[in-house]
Amino acid sequence: MYVDSHCHLDFPELAENLPGILENMKRNQVGHALVVSVNMPQWPGLMEVVAPHSHLYASVGVHPDYEDTPEPTVEQLADMARHPKVVAIGETGLDYFRLSEPLEWQRERFRTHIRASRKSGLPLIIHTRSASEDTLRIMREEGADEFGGVMHCFTESWEVAQAAMEMNFYISLSGIVTFKKAVDLQDLATRIPLDRLLIETDSPFLAPVPYRGKTNDPSKVIHVAEKIAELRAVPVADVARQTTENFFSLFSKIKR
Ligand SMILES: [Zn+2]
Ligand SMILES: [Zn+2]
Hints:
The chain has helices spanning 12-15, 18-27, 43-50, 74-80, 104-120, 132-141, 158-166, 183-191, 221-232, 236-250, and strands at residues 2-7, 30-35, 56-60, 86-95, 124-129, 149-151, 169-173, 197-199.
């Protein structure tokens, strides 16, 4: 059984085809998926998507790429996190690739999420792009190691991965690991201890080979697992089993 640890099933291109996607997940033995929040206005819609399905879960948070969007408070996030379907805070973090300074608001928003994680006791889903130094610094300053989480869609260096793992974070690999040119990431996929690894689609984005350029969905997470297994020269069943176990130990609010 496989788990997609990070997807956006509530985005229109996926939500419109939900019955078919759930069917494909079943066929590919993708037993669970975490639907990750990107902003407050879209959150009620996200909850509507996950509510009827016992194998779908939610997070609550505001993505660093949304500049003109309602800013959440620590109390608000912690309060929303009490919903039984919510198992994580995020996605949050820093993205210096899409936007440029002044980005103090992004760093403040990130701190708010880490504090909400402390208040709610739920793990963090962290997005970091071209901002690893500040991401790690703020994680340290806010004591993120006390509750841990996941560095999602990881594309940074081995040193960054190590620093995150030392702070009790898992490393999640997306379909990027299947891309021909992603040699550094493929090397990293062989070095991360299997008990610190998660797999994800980040769908509808980043469809893995052989679906590159098409709309991604959680059923395609099997191709991420297959690539990691190939790189590590282990049976894909081992990657499936361990990443599933890791998912449930990190998102421990889920009752299996
Ligand atoms: Zn992200
Ligand atoms: Zn995402």
